[in-house]
Design goal:
By secondary structure, this protein is of the alpha+beta class. Helices cover 36% and strands 22% of the residues. Strands 1, 2, 3, 4, 5, 6, 7, 12 and 13 form a 9-stranded mixed sheet that branches. Strands 8-9-10-11 form a 4-stranded antiparallel sheet.
């Protein structure tokens, strides 16, 4: 009888332990775990962009083009595509539009040709690629990605970058492909102004037409890219911040993906894109706080104009700028979308 009682007690203890150690499946779900999301943000340049400088028709065209660019990138992200693919496809579309100072429609150098720069960065491992001062690559953003993925280097410039692009089978064109009358006329006006200021280098155009994209995909990976024709009337193979990792472009899965637009020298000197990420990582600031400090306080104090677009690891978007306007927009999972031009 005692043996029977001991057996019954022992079985009861086992059942009790099993119930404790094997909770229901619902109890294993972490309530703080977020559902995968995506976000994409773009810019088409910052500067003195005001309603009085733009016709209603031109404003409508810019808004239509910005929305179309978002459609391309969001379409890739929505289907589970990578942030890198979304960034490249979105920027390629903007490079192919004469509305922006990147690819077709790039501004002219002092010598009357187009020299293009671009960069891209992968937030997973901070791998990056860039090209600078290229003249025959149809879509510099694709060349930047090729440098990142198919070379041991981060940046290639000039004829070397072009030779590499040819080796990679990328599309090339004559430099005349990038010509637009609007940009050519801008150069002529600047050259005339320069004649009246002997020995000075004039940059009367107060708009920085860089294009850029930052994205978070459903796998939680961030990427950013930037592309530009630089500054009208630039000389001596000047290269700005757009192809400089840490200044014009930066991405880190632990924080955010960022693309800059503005007066490149100031973005380089202040390492703007990385500074924002550093404030997030080391000071534990939000994307909004970190980017606001750098663009609205640090950059103006140094004499710099411009802005950034950024997406953080949780899908939050920030688009601060200290100029009169910035072509910009974002889309998020769930249908949230915004496109803006003026302040």
């Amino acid at each position: 009888m005692k043996k029977l009682i001991y057996s019954l007690v022992f079985c009861s203890l086992i059942l009790s332990c099993n119930q404790t150690e094997a909770p229901s499946a619902s109890a294993n779900v972490d309530p703080t775990e977020q559902e995968p999301t995506y976000s994409i943000a773009i810019h088409g340049g910052a500067g003195t962009i005001t309603p009085d400088r733009m016709t209603p028709e031109l404003e409508a065209e810019y808004r239509k083009t910005l929305n179309a660019a978002l459609d391309i990138g969001e379409g890739i992200l929505k289907e589970g595509g990578s942030s890198l693919d979304a960034v490249v496809a979105t920027i390629e579309f903007m490079e192919n539009s004469p509305l922006f100072n990147a690819g077709i429609g790039a501004v002219f150098t002092h010598d009357g040709r187009n020299e293009l720069d671009a960069s891209i960065m992968d937030g997973r491992d901070r791998n990056a690629g860039a090209v600078g001062g290229v003249t025959i690559i149809q879509n510099p953003i694709k060349a930047a990605r090729a440098v990142m993925e198919h070379s041991p280097h981060v940046m290639l410039t000039g004829t070397g970058a072009e030779a590499f692009a040819l080796q990679q089978g990328l599309d090339t064109v004559s430099n005349a492909y990038f010509y637009t009358e609007k940009r050519w006329n801008s150069l002529q006006r600047i050259l005339e102004a320069e004649k009246k200021k002997t020995g000075s280098l004039a940059f009367p155009d107060s708009k920085f037409g860089t294009v850029g994209c930052a994205a978070l995909d459903l796998n939680g990976n961030l990427a950013a890219g930037t592309s530009t024709g630089g500054m009208t009337n630039k000389r001596f193979n000047r290269i700005g911040d757009s192809p400089i990792i840490g200044a014009g472009t930066y991405a880190d899965n632990k924080a955010a993906a960022i693309s800059s637009t503005g007066h490149g020298e100031y973005f380089i000197r202040n390492v703007v894109a990385f500074d924002i990420v550093a404030r997030m990582l080391y000071q534990e600031k939000s994307l909004e706080a970190a980017s606001g400090e750098v663009i609205m306080d640090v950059l103006p104090a140094a004499g710099g104009d411009g802005g950034i677009i950024a997406v953080d690891k949780d899908g939050n978007v920030a688009m601060p700028f200290n100029t009169a306007g910035m072509y910009r927009g974002y889309s998020k999972k769930g249908g949230e979308r915004y496109v803006g031009i003026f302040k």
